[in-house]
Design brief:
With about 190 residues, the chain is mostly helical. The chain has one domain. The protein is about 80% helix and about 0% strand. The chain is built from eight helices and no strands. The longest helix has 29 residues. The chain starts with a helix and ends in a 5-residue tail after the last helix.
Length: about 190
């Protein structure tokens, strides 16, 4: 195993994703779902979406117009924010386990990773080093560390902050990220 591509991929993944919208989504998921299911669903999504990006970066770039991905992603964020506003159940958090929590986490994180800035960097690293296994391994370790941190934050928030405020805060963050994601291509500025 080449150490340089592994370390480069690990470092870039952590730097690109730290505080990213995907991490905020994991925090939100952790307040409603079993943390192990969120971890497994999220890591599966990262492995699939970002793993395929490493392997088939050129194909993905030609299949999906790059200017439409931020808009589609923005609409998903706004829809999630509106969902948090519309559903007003502020009662006890019902932690969902099993398939529902896994699938919810997998679908959410998969959608959020499409067109993410990390994908571009991973494609470049895979092309530069031509070491897919090492780049993938570094990426997955980075996502594992970040996901674990997001789950800890989600757990702490759900134990200390009222669910009503968590839902309102999540709604505002999701809609803000959605609007920023859409504004980028519309205004001709770089991706969020």
């Amino acid at each position: 195993m080449y150490l340089e591509p592994f370390v480069a991929s690990l470092s870039v993944t952590i730097l690109a994703e730290f505080g990213d919208k995907t991490q905020l989504a994991i925090v939100a998921l952790a307040t409603r779902h079993d943390r192990l299911a969120v971890m497994l669903g999220s890591l599966s999504a990262f492995a699939l979406v970002d793993g395929l990006t490493i392997v088939m970066g050129e194909i993905i770039a030609t299949l999906f117009p790059s200017d439409l991905l931020p808009i589609a992603s923005g609409l998903v964020f706004i829809a999630m924010g509106l969902y948090f506003v519309v559903t007003r159940d502020y009662g006890e958090v019902v932690v969902k386990r099993g398939k529902v929590a896994f699938l919810s986490s997998f679908a959410t994180i998969s959608a959020m990773e499409l067109g993410d800035k990390t994908q571009l960097v991973l494609v470049a690293l895979a092309a530069r080093y031509q070491a897919i296994t090492e780049v993938f391994s570094g990426m997955m370790l980075g996502f594992l560390l970040l996901t674990a941190a997001a789950l800890l934050v989600g757990r702490a928030l759900s134990e200390r902050v009222s669910l009503r405020y968590l839902r309102i805060g999540s709604a505002v963050l999701f809609m803000a990220f959605g609007l920023l994601s859409i504004a980028g291509p519309v205004l001709g500025v770089g991706p969020l």
